[in-house]
Amino acid sequence: MGEDSKVKESGKAQKRKRIGYSKGHKGAKKPKVLQGSGKKVKVDGRMKKLYRKRAREYNSDDDDDGNDNAFEDKAEEVSIKEKMNDERDADELDSENDEEKRHFVDDDEEEEGEIQSGVTKFVEGVRAFKLAFKKIMKRNISDDSLGPVLSGHQKLVAEKLAEEEADRKVKGEAKKEKQLVKEKGHLIPESFFDAHEKFLIGVARKGVVKLFNAVNKAQLAQKGLNPSRTKDAKELSKKRKESFFSELGRKPFSHSTSSKSGTEKDEDGPAWAPLRDNYMLTNSKLKNWDKQQHDAIAADNGRAVIESSDDDE
Amino acid sequence: MARFRDKKKKGFVKPVVKKNLKNVDHITGDKVPKSFVFARGKLPAVLRQLQMDLRKLMLPFTALKLKEKKRNSLKDFLNVAGPMGVTHFMILSKTTTGPYLRVARTPQGPTLTFKVKDYTLAVDVARSQLRPRCPQDLFKNPPLIVLSGFGTGEQHLKLATIMFQNIFPSIDINTVKLSSCQRIVLLNYDKETKLIDFRHYSIRLEPVGVTRRLRKFVQNHQVPDLRNLQDVSDFVTKAGYGSESEGDEDAATVTLSNDMGRVNRASTKSAVKLQELGPRMTLHLIKIEEGLCTGGVIFSEHGDGDKKKPESKEGGTAGNAAGNEDDEGITGEGEESETDDYEDANGDDNEMSEDE
């Protein structure tokens, strides 16, 4: 289409211009410039060159055809009614009009060229848009749950959703596992009483009963005596020891400090220092704790300690 | 003039009460064992709850609101323990294999390390019961302790026995009031599984041979509903349905020497009834160390305890000597730190005395 545009500055014909274009830069340019200079007082040669170059660049697709093909081109241009070409046409027009020095006139649409270019462009653009829109609307789309807009990404979206789901699952599992580790060993009693619990309660109750009965015996014995009188106090201390140990079915220890009770069967050593209440509290030496192997394990100080003898249950 | 006044004033100055007295039973002079229950490392919420339950169990001679920080080392606790007269540590910790409980004597050990096979919180226990029971003064007195099945003659079990017996204050049967015996801690050793069942019960006494109706009447002090009865005598004579535990009562009856509450009078038969309070724990003794979480291994479940015995003994004695110095030498530097809420209920334990 470039060959269609003409330089009217010196009233030259189309052909001349064309020859000038095709001829190469050096030879033809000078006279042209001289011709042009008649009208325009000061047009820089270089500027002109630049303008021409630009023009040529715009029309580059047609330029290389040469002036021989100009008419063919024109015919072709007429015959082809492609929208895109039209669009390009408009663009060209626009750009050519921007160059103020020359009046570019399109062969086909001379009037339009003379009319304001912005309007033309707008009109053309609308047309293109309309066509594009029509094309899109014509497209056949299978209706889907994801809708027409996402149709292009349908697979992608589905994939993403699945991935998310899997991710969440993995995360949930990890969390659950962590929680399990945290609560490891935590047991919630499911039944009110099971056999083992009953057995344990029985053991504990036995201990309590033993202790309470011992306490009862011990305290009943000293009921009549007044502890403030020295004579009675002596009697009291004696009685306490005797009654308590007789009640427990064993003789009192010779050891002065061990006035404590014991509910024990297998005692073969009188010294049970490691089992004394103050054993570790006072001297706190564990040197020989394992030397005294024969020490009886016994309950001390009235606490009911049932040792392994309760095999009956 | 001023000088004279000064002199006069000095006469009225109150003698400084030794703080140390609090740690000692005022009649017998025995040391009252006190305890700290705390955690090493970060505990999940469930175990923190267990820690709280253990603290309640150890009441009244424990620090119920002991605050711990991440940067507190064992030494901090030890420093506080000296002036406070704390004799036992119960240390909860947690690894990936499960929770662990260490029971230690301060300041120089020994330390028993238990693996907590499983545990049940007091809340869970209460939830499983129809009527959970919690009288107001339940935790005002230390619990009794019953050790069962520990007399197998094994050394480490003996040590465990001593440890647990000394963790609660001793009682004297001649002077003890039965009304102060409200709770009981049971430790039951199973020979086959080598597991120790740790249970906590409340003790309740009920008179035998009295119908439920009468008992309730005496207890509640409310006017009974007599609409359906022909005569007042019916209220007394009409037998209510027997309780489910009537059968084993004769084995669990005691005769009281002194009155206990309104219902249980002296020299009447009473049935002992236990209700679980929780927490429950199933413990497995895995290690005994000579020091406080350090020192030679006296016993190990995995069998390497015997090998280490000879050399560990020497280390242990040295440590003990140092520990004895510590015992007197600890000054109250850390006093102000974490134990501001130390519950010293010495006032409550008047009846828990022991002579001789």
Helices, strands, pairings?
The complex is a heterodimer of chains A (313) and B (356).
Chain A: H1 14-22, H2 25-39, H3 45-58, H4 60-63, H5 70-79, H6 83-98, H7 110-114, H8 117-138, H9 154-182, H10 195-221, H11 230-248, H12 279-283
Chain B: H1 2-12, E1 35-39, H2 45-58, H3 74-84, E2 88-95, E3 98-105, E4 111-120, H4 122-128, E5 144-148, H5 155-167, E6 183-189, E7 195-207, H6 212-220, H7 232-237, E8 253-255, E9 269-276, E10 280-289, E11 297-300, H8 305-329
Brief descriptors of the model:
heterodimer; A: 313 residues; mainly alpha; disordered N terminus; B: 356 residues; alpha+beta; 8 helices; 23% strand; elongated; disordered C terminus
Largest sheet of chain A: none
Largest sheet of chain B: 11 strands, mixed
Q: Give the strand content of chain B.
A: 15-25%
The proportion of residues forming helix of chain B, as a percent range, comes to 25-40%
| Low-confidence region ranges of chain A | 1-17, 22-34, 63-87, 92-115, 251-271, 291-313
Shape, per Cα inertia axes of chain A: rod-shaped
Number of helices of chain A: 12
User: Biggest protein-protein interface?
Assistant: A-B, 70 and 86 residues
Distance between the termini of chain B: 52 Å
Q: How many E strands of chain A?
A: 0
Which oligomeric state applies?
Answer: heterodimer
Fraction of residues of chain A in helices?
Answer: 55-70%
Indicate the overall shape of chain B. elongated
Q: What's the N-to-C terminus distance of chain A?
A: 114 Å
Question: How would you describe the overall organization of this protein?
Answer:
The complex is a heterodimer of chains A (313) and B (356). Chain A is an all-alpha fold. Chain A is 56% helix and 0% strand. Chain A is built from 12 helices and no strands. Chain A is rod-shaped, with a radius of gyration of 58 Å. Chain B has a domain of 193 residues: Brix domain (Rossmann fold, 3-Layer(aba) Sandwich), CATH 3.40.50. The termini of chain B are far apart. Chain B is of the alpha+beta class and 356 residues long. In chain B, strand 6 and strand 7 form a beta hairpin. Chain B is built from 8 helices and 11 strands. The C terminus of chain B is likely disordered. In chain B, strands 1, 2, 3, 4, 5, 6, 7, 8, 9, 10 and 11 form an 11-stranded mixed β-sheet that branches. Chains A and B meet through helix 10, helix 11 and helix 12 of A and strand 3, strand 4, helix 4, strand 5 and helix 5 of B.
